[in-house]
Every structure is written in structure tokens, then in C-alpha cells.
Amino acid sequence: MGRKWNNIKEKKASKDANTSRIYAKFGRELYVAAKQGDPDPETNQTLKMVVERAKTYNVPKAIIDRAIEKAKGGAEENYDELRYEGFGPNGSMVIVDALTNNVNRTASEVRAAFGKNGGNMGVSGSVAYMFDATAVFGLEGKTADEVLELLMEADVEVRDILEEEDTVIVYAEPDQFHAVQEALKNAGITEFSVAELTMLAHNDVTLDADSEAQFEKMIDALDDLEDVQQVYHNVDLGE
């Protein structure tokens, strides 16, 4: 799973390069999570997870608080949660998650981003079955063995724990996200380089240089769309 962690780092680095876009995307996601339940991260687990993920992207507390206060204030913006699936060059697969207040606009923009960059949209279910929803945490200051021991003591099950350079990566089932998070925090680990739910492909594909360049252009086009929150894929991107 190490390659997948590299892709997560690559995605974060790309997003971090445009902070205004990141803030806007998180503002929308935080607002939706707060509107769907109690606007308090301590009692709304979905909101708490989005807040924790926002912190790993260096979203300022003021922006997090503003989005939650907006939900508390009774704003009536309505968003649909949508998932699109599609294909890129040479067997590459892509999943796109979006929050939108205009389904037709978003579908058109996502379709165009695929089509203009050598890809095409698929039907629902054409790609998702090749991915697993996964909780992922990245942390420093511990070894993989130390993290495994503390999670075992807390009776928390995980899929895998590995080390890459100075980072320990924990992979777990999605429903174990909060259990893993609490166990780590109870052990004094409060800072995470990654703390999110993602979609990890069963198998990765490697593209030639030209196809990879085209694929990255397609991913960038999708990620640049205002309504798109997350883009997942199965390509082993080069360094």
C-alpha cells in the first residue's frame, strides 16, 4: 500500500498549491456536514471527521468555524452528494465525488473534463467495484510496531500499518475511523499528516510518459471544478 500513500501525498501537495480552492471546498463540505446533523464536532461524527481532515490540509480555524456558524445560522443552501465514475487512458480508472447545487451543471463539467483529456465517463458502478473505501492516517514520532501495540491495547482493528521514511501509515476499515483516531489521540498523538476516508484501488496501473501526462491533465481538470470535492484513481504516478 505504500504507493497509495505516495499518491495521497501527491494529491495533498497539489491541493496545497491553491489554498483558496481548498478553503472553498472544505467550507462547502463542513457546511453540509454541519447541516446534516448537530453542528457540533463533538457530537456529529461526520462533521468531526471533516474538521480533522481540514486540519491536515492546513485550513485555518477561522474558516472551519465560519462554515459551522453558517450552518448554525440557518442558511438554506442545498447540495446533492454525487459520485461519477470514469476511465482514462490504458485502463486507468477514476472516481469523482462532488457536492453541487446544480446537478446538470456538474455532470456537464465532469463529462467535459473527462472527454477533453482522453477519458470518458462510465455508468454508476463501472469503476467503484475496483476500489475499497479506506480510513487512512499518517503520523510521525512513532514506529509501526509502537502504533500497532497501542491500537491492539485499545482493541482497534486495522488492515495494515507500515512505515515510509519518518511516517507511519495506518489503513483501517471506514467504520473504524473514529476508533483509530481516538486510540491514537489517547496515546498522545494529536497531529496527523493525513486523517481521512479515501478510495484505494485493488490494483494499480502504470502509464507510459505521454499517457501519464494526459492523465494528470485530466485529474487536474476534474480537481479544478468548483463542485468536485475528491478525485480518486488507480494510477501509479511517477515521482
From TrEMBL:
The keyword Transcription regulation applies. Keywords: Cytoplasm, DNA-binding, Transcription, Transcription regulation. Its main location: cytoplasm. It is found in: Cytoplasm. Residues 3-74 form the TACO1/YebC-like N-terminal domain. Gene3D superfamilies: 1.10.10.200, 3.30.70.980. Residues 79-235 form the TACO1/YebC-like second and third domain. The keyword Mitochondrion does not apply. Pfam families: TACO1_YebC_N, Transcrip_reg. One of its GO terms (biological process) is regulation of DNA-templated transcription. Belongs to the TACO1 family. YeeN subfamily. This is Probable transcriptional regulatory protein QTL97_13495.
